[in-house]
């Protein structure tokens, strides 16, 4: 899956870079995927650039 500029602002890497630690914590409280690029964990595949299901 390609990451597009309009959705990237809500991805974990962008949120971390902006210092949105509360939002990052909320969006990763019960992770189901990780980013294949940076390894960030997220509850939803919508919040990472390259979602890979957790095993």
UniProtKB/TrEMBL annotation:
Protein name as it appears in the record: Uncharacterized protein
Organism of derivation: Geobacter metallireducens
Source lineage: Bacteria, Pseudomonadati, Thermodesulfobacteriota, Desulfuromonadia, Geobacterales
């Amino acid at each position: 899956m390609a990451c597009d500029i309009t959705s990237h602002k809500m991805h974990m890497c962008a949120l971390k870079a902006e210092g949105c630690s509360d939002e990052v914590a909320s969006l990763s409280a019960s992770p189901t995927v990780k980013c294949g690029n940076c390894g960030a964990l997220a509850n939803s595949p919508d919040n990472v650039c390259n979602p890979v299901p957790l095993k």
